[in-house]
Design brief:
This protein is of the alpha+beta class. Helices cover about 20% and strands about 40% of the residues. The protein contains three helices and ten strands; from the N terminus they run αβββββαβββββα.
Length: about 140
């Protein structure tokens, strides 16, 4: 694979061009990964609405029927349910890790085995999340991509 980068001051926005002899699974995943940088989530904090880039999201969690988006520095509330969020983010780096949590695998620093066939995930911001047994396979598949 060859990577060509060009700085052009006259451009109004960044352009990405991918040339390939055959569309492969690897290229498809690369395209999905690039597209998620344009993906924004709407969150609310102190009665203000914010657009949160997906690459800044560490995890999403539901507590007492409210859904929260955790970035590396802030916590936002969203009006969407965790099921809706999971469905909308299916083709991104977001994966369900428990009944009430979705994880952005790009925020993972390390993974460690935990008692009762679970996994402890350490995030880049130092937080730890527990992956339920039921969702370990999904997490492993998402990481392999």
């Amino acid at each position: 694979m060859k990577l060509l980068l060009q700085h052009r001051k006259e451009l109004q926005e960044t352009e990405i061009e991918i040339r390939y002899p055959d569309m492969t699974e690897r290229i498809t995943r690369m395209i999905q990964h690039i597209r998620q940088y344009d993906f924004m989530l709407e969150g609310f904090k102190e009665d203000k609405a914010y657009q949160i880039p997906l690459d800044k999201v560490c995890y999403i969690e539901t507590i007492d029927r409210k859904t929260f988006i955790y970035s590396d520095r802030n916590i936002y509330e969203t009006k969407k349910t965790i099921q809706v969020m999971e469905s909308e983010l299916k083709e991104t780096t977001i994966v369900r890790i428990s009944k009430s949590q979705l994880l952005n695998i790009t925020a993972v620093n390390s993974v460690k085995s935990y008692p009762n066939h679970r996994i402890m995930v350490e995030l880049n911001n130092g937080e730890h999340l527990l992956v339920s047994r039921k969702y370990i396979t999904d997490l492993k598949e998402k990481i392999r991509r």
